[in-house]
Amino acid sequence: MTRYQDVNRILIVVMILSMASIAPGASASTAAATTIVSDLHEALIESMKAGSEISYEERYEQLQPVIERTHHFPYIARFVLGRYASRLEREEQQQFLEVFRRLSVATYASRFDNYNGERFQHVSSREVSPGRMVVRTVLVTSKGTRVQLDYLLLRRDDRWAIVNVLADGVSDLALRRSEYAWLLQNEGFMALLEELHRQIDDLAQRS
Amino acid sequence: MTPRLAAAFAYWVRLVVSRAGWFTLGTLLLAGLSLFHAANYLGIDTDTTNMLDPELPFQRAYDRYQQEFPQYEDTLVLVVQSETPETASEAAKRLVQRLGAEKDLIKAVYLPRGGDFFERNGLLFLKTEELTLLVDRLAQAQPLLARLADETSLARLFEVLAQAVGNAREGGLELERVLAEVDRAVVERLEGRNALVSWQQLMRGEDVSKVAREIVIVQPRLDYSRVMAGRQAMEAVRETIRELGFDDSEGATTVRVTGKVALQFEELISTLEGARLAGLLALVFVMAVLYLGLGSLKLMSIALVTLFVGLSLSVGIATLIVGHLNLISIAFAVLYVGLGVNFAIHFLLRYRECLEAGEPPRVALVTTGHHMGVALTLCTVTTAIGFFAFVPTAFVGIAELGLIAGTSMFITLAVSFTLLPALLELTWPTTATKPGMALSMPGWTSRLLALPQHHWRAVCWGAGIAGLAAVALLPRLQFDADPLNLRDPTSESVTTLIELLAAEPFTRRNLVVLAQRPEEVAALSERLEALEAVDGTINLFDFVPPEQGEKLMLIEEMELLLGPVLLTASFTPRQRSADDVITALAELRQALRDSEPESGSSEVTDRLGEHLAVLQERLERDTAARDRLFDGLRHQLLSTLPLSMQRLQMALQAQQVTLDTLPDDLLSRWRSPDGTYLVQVMPAEDLGQLEAQRHFIQAVRNLVPEVTGTPILQLESGDAVVKAFQQALLYAFGGISLVLLVILRNILLTLKVLVPLLLGSALTGAVMALTGIPFNFANVIALPLLLGVGVDNGIHMVYREYYVNETVSNVLQTSTARAILFGALTTTVSFGNLALSPHRGTASMGVVLAMGMILILLCTLVVLPALLRSR
């Protein structure tokens, strides 16, 4: 019995090793990326389960480190600004990044604030090209409604981080980029910052 | 000399008459053989570039380019037009696929700006800023596309639009444009039409009103052993277009054919049609004039038979000495009819005159031979000189016509003194002439014609003034070197090309520079682009786009932004129940009504709202038509979506482009197998104007002397032809003067014959300058030829007056005047028929020749008698 277990263990190790030699780091990458997403999901579930026991501010504090660790905000911030990114001063860019980061955490904190038996299911993880991963998950509510959540991750500095989330195919990056582009074009950078601040305040008040 | 020649002709005619049967049979047999030979061996060369001496420097430069890059030569250009870029591109691809399979007839088919390579890497050829803008647009479109990816249906589209209208900021995709396009589709649907909406244009922000155009280049295998080398390939292409349903001019997608092969094919058809029409009409007119002039059906028939036999022999000679006809020398048959019949008229009228003077037929024939031999020989020589004058020039196109037509003049002479008397002898010998037919002109005409003699001083002064005025106008004469202007302006290949040039003005008039080394290419391009007259250059290295790293990153961003769903969905349109669609429609109408005016799209929303109301009303009234309406709308609004998404998905797979990854056919279009590089130079301004063309060419040539290309070919050809024309005019004039001097042996008399001729020519040029008719490759033959033909009238008159010893007042009352008039009339009329040709080059040749003939005839009839009167 133990002998068979040993053989099995050896076989598994061999298989993992041989896969690693065929696609170096591929499975390790997939696992790492999947872990990032599940870390986020775990944090979200925890936040939901805490429900009204904790305040919005506490929830924000709780989620912030996980969200910042799992997301690549500098990349996302630069991307949502699009062609305007290069027109902003360094300081302005930094300012934007900071507010944007806060808005993102606030959005999570206000959305995931009560628990009704929701669960996240991992569907697949696929490295679409070197350094780019799609982790497909499904959020199932207690009523059985399914929302498909696709996470796009990039590997930066040997670490995987989320850069885009698509809910039923609709891209968060795309929505934000058009919204911000509209504001930047029609009302300017200061108006954009103000709008983001207003949204953060709204989220805080609503909760 | 002359009396001896005259005697020789008399002797010959006597010989012919004594063995009339044998001579007739022999001539007919020879004519038959000649026709047979021509039918088997006479080719047609439709290549206008072959019309000039291939040894000219600019021809050689072009030749070298052709040898290095044969794929640009002898092509068919298929212009695909469709209402959307998606359908145009699909149609082009299907054409490439179908035609590519016709290996026997088609060497290669390609999309100069399409195909896998450009579909995959096209985004890299946008400027970085354009690409950034595209990322923005796609970001705007993403939510809408994602919802459509989930379910591509009308109901879903209306639902998504209803949501978007409620939120202008999130609406994306420049909501107004989308709504305007939906509105257009609905309006067209209500009117029962099928206008498609292009998602590509919406996504890329392209102008939706622009006609989508794709170009397909076809290199046919040309079978030069056939008269029309491109015919089989042309027919195969047309058949394919028909089978694919792209031939309907009302259809959503049409394909039209142009390009050198098509232009030449259709040009040849129009020329042949013109030559056939003109030939037929010339024959009818000539028969009428012959009948009027000769006053006898039998004589007319004899003249016609002689004409045909002469023509048959000439065609055979053309086959022997040249081997082919070209687009200009095809007109030779008509010229022949016009000129050849002249000889018969002169001979027959004089014959009748002799008969009426009471001579027995045989004697009359010999007398006619004696009297007419010298004059007609002279005419033959002078006319032939007019034709031959082009032979020593570089203008091969007309030199060939000159050689053929000039030689055929001698055949005419021979036939007129062989077959004509033989036939007369065989058919006429015992028949008595009907007396009473006046061979001279009616009294009032001769009185009219006698006027110049009475008022000879006034005529001389008038002629002098008219001559000076005409010469003053001559510098305004233009030469039109654009072969496009010679072609039938209604033919498909020409209209398509003109349209293409208007839409993409720089497609044709580029110059071409060849370079041997990559460094040379770069240096040349840089120096050329610095020129003011140059808009830009294209060479192989331009197909390796700059800033690829940055662009590839932007493309990667696009992919991140669009997400995996959009990039794998098929977007196949789905049908939802009519009730669902109606519900969604009501939702959209409600959203449009509620939309805030400040969102800026009030006009479009109002309009769409109204039209949707009409649609809804129609749906309620006619429930049976629901499915049909929805099917139509679904097709209009959603059918291009799968294609444009496929293209987008493909475009996102762009990869680093290097010289090594360029596809072979693209590479070979810009670098020949032996490593010669092609650099195309585009002009900064439209080259429709001759001056702009010269300026551009000169600017480039200063840098690169061995530059070539169509504009140079045209310009240089024009210059070469003008030079050839001047030489020919000089040769013709010199030759004719010499002949006149030899024959007349009198300088003053020679001058007197030449003056009306020069005056007529100058007047012809002046009228052309005044009416804005330019010289071109075809009609440039007119003046030297007119000299050769026009002098005949003078010769006949002078000859009759001086050598037949009749009084001047008498000459207009003889058969000679009648012959001159009717001869000139037939010539003019038959030349004039060329004007009806759909081929504009042939037509202008007809116009100029007919006009010139009339003017020269007038000068001969008015000025010559006045000059002869002056001592």
Automatic annotation (TrEMBL), chain B:
Transmembrane segments: 20-42, 277-294, 300-323, 330-349, 369-391, 403-424, 728-748, 819-836, 848-868
Gene3D superfamilies assigned to the protein according to its UniProt record, in alphabetical order: Multidrug efflux transporter AcrB transmembrane domain (1.20.1640.10)
Organism, as annotated: Litchfieldella qijiaojingensis
Membrane topology: Multi-pass membrane protein
Protein name, as recorded: Membrane transport protein MMPL domain-containing protein
Organism domain of life: Bacteria
Pfam family, one: MMPL
InterPro entries per the UniProt record, alphabetical: Hopanoid_biosynth_HpnN, MMPL_dom, Mycobact_MmpL
Annotated ranges, domain Membrane transport protein MMPL: 229-430, 640-868
Locations listed in the record: Cell membrane
Record key words, sorted: Cell membrane, Membrane, Transmembrane, Transmembrane helix
PANTHER family: MEMBRANE PROTEIN MJ1562-RELATED, MEMBRANE PROTEIN YDFJ
